[in-house]
Structure formats: structure tokens, C-alpha cells
Amino acid sequence: xxxxxxxxxxxxxxxxxxxxxxxxxxxxxxxxxxxxxxxxxxxxxxxxxxxxxxxxxxxxxxxxxxxxxxxxxxxxxxxxxxxxxxxxxxxxxxxxxxxxxxxxxxxxxxxxxxxxxxxxxxxxxxxxxxxxxxxxxxxxxxxxxxxxxxxxxxxxxxxxxxxxxxxxxxxxxxxxxxxxxxxxxxxxxxxxxxxxxxxxxxxxxxxxxxxxxxxxxxxxxxxxxxxxxxxxxxxxxxxxxxxxxxxxxxxxxxxxxxxxxxxxxxxxxxxxxxxxxxxxxxxxxxxxxxxxxxxxxxxxxxxxxxxxxxxxxxxxxxxxxxxxxxxxxxxxxxxxxxxxxxxxxxxxxxxxxxxxxxxxxxxxxxxxxxxxxxxxxxxxxxxxxxxxxxxxxxxxxxxxxxxxxxxxxxxxxxxxxxxxxxxxxxxxxxxxxxxxxxxxxxxxxxxxxxxxxxxxxxxxxxxxxxxxxxxxxxxxxxxxxxxxxxxxxxxxxxxxxxxxxxxxxxxxxxxxxxxxx
Length: 517
Known about the structure:
alpha+beta; nitrate reductase domain fold; four-stranded mixed β-sheet; two-stranded antiparallel ribbon; globular; disordered C terminus
């Protein structure tokens, strides 16, 4: 058993309000440089939608991730043989139009324009060429456009749904959307690391953060092709690839990453998971229907004495083991079974997990019986009686999950490789906690029904209280349990600037200034 530690994340999608504060915080710190204008290491997408870059989930276009052939897995669009044939022309790279051509406005025209009869305007200009341009796309161009035929209806996750299910999603009375924030998943089986011909991309042993050595990178861009989430970018000015570094200088000093620290909805959690690295190959090569279960099984119990002993023998610090025991991500992923990985079928074993959104329920009007409604309605006050949920069975309450505005198949295509039972199990738990809290705070649900809902979802009142606290009332230190960095390691990182062997310090440096260009 090869026990290692991994900084992992959980995003609670029921709490995301789509404010993009996380994206702006990341942009201001990391990608405000020349050549990085189009990069958004953190972005927030509307689902259903095509995302950023457009249709990034469609690996028939981009050939990202791994594919299974027999008992082995292979990179779809990269790897040594493919890299040699595509070394001078890679047809699977996203184009700038798939992201968007970054632009600004010529604001001086508003100030310096001579007096005239026409109102001066600030024309949009390209941040790459400096020439005037027509804006056609942006990083969140399809924000909130749930019914747009150009975006929502082209979502790759809709392809496995029947035409009737797709059409039902876009009926006006059933229309809904939710937000999907994305950063690099810092995977356990990262395709970008395996694809790099220069071996410039590596995974840090102490916390699993995936980084790119800027001194070794030779701009082959195979990492861009290989990453199925399209979270590796090419800087056209420096000629280097770049990606999210999980703000590791902040983590080393005990601070949360910028996107997480600035999150208005407090949807983000960060902590340590212990996993068995000996299982990576077998788990990534498992059958698609068992990928999620196998990935969950390789995450180890940080309270198990055998796991603790193996971790210490492998050099995992006591502070890291302590952090793993109090990790909020371990609770969401393993203890409570609420979070799922994004597109596990890509076989990269992502370490960013999502709590699915508890979407609103709305049946079609013609499916509702007027007589049944009148029986429920108070004939005098014409309003729902105070005790109507006392007469509602648990089967009726949980049956509404199948009437959610989003088909379970859509959510399963995102989070469980098409297995609807895994998504339904987690949504049932979320709904059971909501029913329990309604009983506690409002009192219009009987204790019997509340306990029945919890029991059906596999929860207890104690677990429901714990889930409610970490979801709704957590303090900063509850959401971010960051292991202490060791002084001797920190000093080495500060003094060391990097070499050609794959070891690196910190920072993206523009070499053009040194060349005098």
C-alpha cells in the first residue's frame, strides 16, 4: 500500500450564484500578463451550455483524456507515437475562437475625439493584434442562457438523452440552469503529465498539485490536447504552457487559494485526502460503470491505524495526517457520500468533486389533477394547509426527484459516467436533510416523516446536523483545512529557483526582457 496525500476540493453546486468573483480573483493574480489575456484558470459555466472553450466535453473533437483498450488505457490524442506524427501540426488543439479573442476598448477615443455632431464611441480592439475587431465570443458568453439554441442546445451532455427528454428541458415552464465552476482537477492520473514530451509537467509528491516547469517546457502543447477539461493553456508571448497551480504559495503559508478565499457563495471546500497510489493504474483501467466506485475505494480512511502507519512509513507528515482526519472534502466524498467527480469517464481520476444541485421540481400542468389539488387546498383560505406534509408519504416526496427540471440522465452524464443511481442517491440525501431541517425549524413536517426521510436516504439525525452545519454554517477553518508547511521545506522552496531536471521554484517569467526584445 503506497499511501500518499492529495490536496482535494469540493464544490457545492447548490450554493453557487454565478457571480464570477472567483474568476476575477484568479485573473487579477495569475493571468493578467501579456499572452495570458484569454486564459481563465478558474471559470464559471452555465449548464446546460457549451462551456469554455466551446464544447470542451466533446472528446470526439479534442481527443482529450484516456481510452480503454483491453486491460490497458491509452491517451486519446497525445502520447509518444501521436506526438511524433502531430509534432508540427496538431489538429486537435482548440483554436483561439474556441476560447475567445481577448479584447478591450479604445477608451481614449472618448476623450481625444474632436468636437463633432456624432457621439464618440470606444471601439473594441483585439488584445492580441491591437486591431479593431467585432466581438463574437467571450469566456462566459452563454451565461444564464438556458434556452439558447446556440449554446444550451449544443451541450455535449445532451447527446445521450432522447429527443423527447431534450425537448422537455427547454419547455418554458420547465426551463432551468445551474452554474458549474471549474479549475484544474489536479488529477491522480493526469493526462497532461503523461502527454508532455519534455516531461515539464509533474505532480508534487507532498500534496499532489500538478505544475509545469517553465524552464523545461518546450511548447509542444500536447498537454493542451491531452487534458480533457482543457485547463492547460499556451502563452503565445512566452512560448510556454501554463495552468492553475492551486495557489500553492498561499497553501504553503496556510492560506486558501484566491478563488476559494473570495467565493461569495462559500461553495468551496479544501482539504487533504489519503489514497493508495498502487491502485491508480487498476482504477483508471476499470470498466466505465465501476469507475466512480473504484475511485472512491482508493481513498483511504485517515483514522485507520494501518493507513496511518503506511502513511508515516511513506514520509507523510503528522500534520498532513491530522489535516486529513478533519478534512471537509473527506466528509463530503467518503463519510457522507455527497460529492462526485466531473466526467469520471475521462479516466484522469480528478480530485475536484461536486455536490450535485438539488434542482427545482415542476411537473407539467396537464399532469396535475384539479381534484387532487382541491383536496389538498383549504377550501376557505385557498392556501396550502399548515399540515399538508403530514399527509404526504416519503415515496411521494422522493418521487419528485424524477420530476426535476433536469433529467437525472443529464446529471449522470456530468458526474457519474451515466449512472443515474449514484446521482439520485446523493440528491435523496440532500432532500432528506432539507426535510429534516424543515421539521426542526418550521415544524410543518412531522418527526415521524422527517425520520422516515432520513432513514430512506441512509442518514441519521446526527449526520443530517453535521451536513447542515458544514453546508450552511461553517467557519472559514471548517471549509479549509490546510496542513502546516514545514519550515525546512519552505526554506528550500524559497532558495531554489529551478533547474532542467524537472525541479522548479515559483513564477512565470518572461524571457523576452532578458533577451532585450
